Amino acid sequence: MDTNQALAAFSTLSQKTRLRVFRLLVEYGPAGSPVGKLSTSLQIPHNTLSFHLSHMSHAGLVLSRREGRSVIYSANFEFF
Q: The whole model's pTM is what?
């Protein structure tokens, strides 16, 4: 990991909601979780959660994939 990647990751995780989301994704492991389940578990509205997941994705901290109509997010364990 280079310095710029580390700075982006730390900057992204310095926000309380994003840190909560990331910690939960780490608990779910590589399988990840659908956005709806994350939203319900953390009691965060879908649009707010999408905003935070977008920031985390741009920083390389999370990965997303489609399964049918659902978007599954997982922590990017290869980032570290």
A: 0.91
CATH number at residue 40: 1.10.10.10
Evaluate whether residue 80 is within a structural domain: no
Contacts 24+ apart (CB under 8 A), 12-21: 12/55, 12/56, 12/58, 12/59, 12/61, 13/61, 15/52, 15/55, 17/42, 17/44, 17/48, 17/52, 18/52, 18/55, 18/56, 21/49, 21/52, 21/53, 21/56
Per-residue pLDDT of the chain (80 residues; tens, 9 = 90+): 789 888 999 999 999 999 999 999 999 999 999 999 999 999 999 999 999 999 999 999 999 999 999 999 999 999 87
Domain of 25, in residue numbers = 3-75
